[in-house]
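Same chain as my last thread, 372 residues:
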Amino acid sequence: MLQVYSQIEPRLLELTEDVVLNRRRDAAERLSSYAQGLTSEGKTPQGSGSEAWRAASLEERIDHAMLKGVTSHIEQDIMEAYRELGTPLAVIDAMLMPAMGRVGELFGQGKMFLPQVVKSARVMRSAVDVLTPYMAAGESSGRSVATVLLATVKGDVHDIGKNIVSVVMSCNGYRIVDMGVMVSPESIVDRARQGDIDIIGLSGLITPSLDEMIRVVEGLGRAGLSIPVVIGGATTSEIHTAVKIAPRYEGVVVRSNDASQSVGILSSLLGPSSESFIAGVRRRQAELRAAFETREQNRRLLPLAEARNRGYVKEPSEVVVPRQTGRVVLNDFPIEQAAGYIDWSFLLAAWGVAGRYPEVLDSPLKGEQARE
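reply #2:
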């Protein structure tokens, strides 16, 4: 089971850090001695009981399942929460959102790796699947307030936040058009042009998603649309939205910090005071842009001509001529042999596993995540 760094058993954490940070001469021996006291599964000290968390309160069990990515009991716990709280939205607000908030906080602090967040996403999806029939039953007698198009932008397969937003909005009567993940700007614009979309919600986790969001709003503008756009995700920020995205679009672009804010933002955008809300958003974004421009002006940058004059010039004698130019065809080259030439450092870094390859594979703290 993947461990959240801050929740590693204190004794094990101390012993492991002693080895990694080389704090003691006998660090390896001490860690080896500790390992001898583990159960046959190699996961918990003898006598601790791997299922001990099942005796905790309902909220603590759901929180544990979310943090550790455990799906084995989530359906049972979510049904218990539904019976106790009465509505899907209450379960989301009281149980799932706080747990996901802790996941996001730990990920932002570098105390959880992306593979662990993906496991948390699976737990959330399982929980949402349990609640969906009850959510749909509650909607059947209600009236749809507005239609919201949701999409995780091209290049990004992260949909945990979007799924939470979808459930929260649905519980509040909004009709959801979920386009899924890896959705191209063209597809989003084409769907928006059909005329039945009131709000567009864009989600993304990785940094390239920010550029895709810019392409989406530019495409909406070229199509003559000004539908309000709400963006969210780990890499989004209020300052980036104000400086990079909002100026590219005639309509309003609002950044939502988390799923719990989504319904409030939609109510403000579609309610009777929408004009004043949008004016406030634009005013705040203008202030952020002005502050950003001031900081940029205070940076001491060289003029382009001077920077070029200072550039490194390679002497002809330093130029290395390759043994062969053009296309090189390798016939019957074993893929296993090719894999040995691959530097996996960049893949690991993209997944949030810091360290040098291949040394990180042997790391007591990160080796499991790296190999996975």
